[in-house]
Design brief:
Length: about 130
């Protein structure tokens, strides 16, 4: 079974920007898995989820893995802002597909995905805001 790092083709020490780029690339390659990729992105951008996942994956004490996302530099901040813009456009585009479906299961999945992606975008914007405040 593949781990989340191999699905996104990332190294263990990948930066926040690398994770977002991998998400964007995977969504472009396989749009039908976008809901799944969003769940993976949620784990990678939340420092506590990532810490817990890494401790389970590498079977080590969670206290040894206190590696939170590295701080951004100016170039990374710009690229991350562009990816956020892409993700917001994608979110709105896919969410509009609700008007073309009457499948209740799909609509519920879509609503949950929309809420998750909205929370992810808030977190990513928080990283950019922290960059300017630091």
């Amino acid at each position: 079974m593949k781990n989340l790092y191999s699905i996104f083709n990332l190294n263990y020490d990948a930066s926040l920007l690398d994770v977002c780029k991998a998400y964007q690339k995977k969504c472009m390659e396989m749009p039908s898995f976008i809901f799944y990729y969003t769940k993976i992105l949620k784990i990678f951008i939340n420092p506590f989820y990532k810490l817990f996942y890494d401790s389970l994956l590498f079977q080590v004490d969670i206290r040894l893995l206190m590696l939170f996302p590295k701080s951004l530099n100016e170039d990374d901040e710009y690229e991350l802002a562009m990816i956020i813009f892409y993700m917001e456009s994608l979110k709105d585009y896919i969410y509009d597909s609700k008007y073309f479906s009457s499948n209740k299961r799909y609509l519920l999945l879509l609503e949950n995905w929309y809420d998750e992606l909205e929370n992810i975008l808030i977190s990513l914007k928080g990283y950019i805001q922290n960059f300017y405040l630091s």
